[in-house]
Amino acid sequence: MTELDRLVMEGIRTARRVVVSVVGVTVLVVGIALLVLPGPAFVVLPIGLGILAIEFEWARRLLRKARRLYETAARTSRPPGSHGTSTTDSDRDSDTSRETTLGS
Questions:
Q1: For the chain, how big is the Rg over CA atoms in Å?
Q2: Residues near 30 by Cβ (< 8 Å), separated by ≥ 6?
Q3: b vs e for 35-73, b when ≥16 Cβ sit within 10 Å of the residue's Cβ?
Q4: How far is it, in rounded angstroms, from Cα 101 to Cα 104?
Q5: Number of helices and strands (H, E) in the chain?
Q6: CB count, 10 Å around CB of 87?
Q7: Under DSSP, is residue 92 helix (H, G, I), strand (E, B) or coil?
Q8: Selection from 59, 70, 71, 73 nearest residue 28 by Cα
Q9: What is the pLDDT at residue 77?
Q10: What is the pLDDT of residues 43-80, one digit of tens each?
């Protein structure tokens, strides 16, 4: 590999790192702003971390930690035995009949 080839490869690596950094930080800043503005902050933040994790180990570690926190929260937020079941038609019918009785 010649000196010129080595310099070109180093330049490409540096350019890639800069592009990933700029895009990742931009998405991360938008996600942080969405914490106080209306929008899907908890979707955008991991996307920004994922972009930064392409080049940076600290972002990989933070993304792994966020994933573990999400999995723990998802596991503990559901009561045991519930698998996302929805209200049945009979439950809705009994609620409607109760409202009709109370409203009369």
A1: 25
A2: 44, 48
A3: eeeeeebeebbbebbebbbebbeebeebbeeeeeeeeee
A4: 5
A5: 4, 0
A6: 8
A7: helix
A8: 59
A9: 81
A10: 999 999 999 999 999 999 999 998 998 889 888 887 66
Four-point Cα dihedral 38, 44, 46, 52, nearest 10: -130
Cβ contact 27:48 at 8 Å: yes
Residue 83 has which token pair? 């698998």
Q: The tokens of 104 are what?
A: 């009369």
Residue 103 CB: number of other CB atoms within 10 A?
Answer: 6
Q: Cα separation of 23 and 54, whole Å?
A: 11
Tokens at 84, concatenated:
């996302």
Q: Residue 32 is encoded by which pair of tokens? A: 């942080």
Q: CA–CA separation, 90 vs 97, rounded Å?
A: 11
Supply the angle between the helices 57-77 and 41-53 in degrees, to the nearest 10.
Answer: 150
